[in-house]
Amino acid sequence: MKHKPPAEADEEQLVRRTARGDRAAFEEFYRRTSPWLAVRLRRRCADEQVVAEVMQETYLAVWRAAGSFSGAAAGGTAVGWVWTIAARRLVDAFRRRAHHAQPPPAVQVAVVAPAAEEEALAATVGDYVGNALRALAPELRQILQAMVLDGLSVRETAVLLGLPEGTVKTRARRARIAMREALS
């Protein structure tokens, strides 16, 4: 009989159980996080093959490295941890592609409804800062999202967004100035 994790187990508990080799906990973690992760990756990469490879590499890394997750006690969440792994894997995939050809194009979609991460950020930082973020030009908000929310370096952001590093630095500076002005 297959052990099913309790519905009330949070993602951090599932990762800790995965670290002990609990396959059912890993499957539940995957079930809960993979749809969100796939959507988030597709917003950054239009190539479904790359997204599928990154998903596979990410969850393999989760299975192998679940014991290294330090948890909410260290200020991180399991969802944030899996996104960090996926973002790094996506950057690696872009680098591999760039070595052999041009990187896949980034998805350029006119967003009608706010993304879940934008809503979460607005709820976390409050209306005043959230409004300032929403007022930023999309290309500036995209840079802040990659560097601040996703924790990527300038180089990783440049690879992820298919931009020169100098452009990323310039846009990051413009975004900081615009945020400072909006919040003063």
From TrEMBL:
GO terms for biological process: DNA-templated transcription initiation. One of its GO terms (molecular function) is DNA binding. Transmembrane segments: none annotated. InterPro entries: RNA_pol_sigma-70-like, RNA_pol_sigma-70_dom, RNA_pol_sigma70_r2, RNA_pol_sigma70_r4_t2, RNA_pol_sigma_r2, RNA_pol_sigma_r3/r4-like, WH-like_DNA-bd_sf. It comes from the Bacteria. The keyword Transcription applies. Residues 29-98 form the RNA polymerase sigma-70 region domain. Keywords: Sigma factor, Transcription, Transcription regulation. It comes from Amycolatopsis saalfeldensis. This is RNA polymerase sigma-70 factor, ECF subfamily. Residues 129-178 form the RNA polymerase sigma factor 70 region 4 type domain. Belongs to the sigma-70 factor family. ECF subfamily.
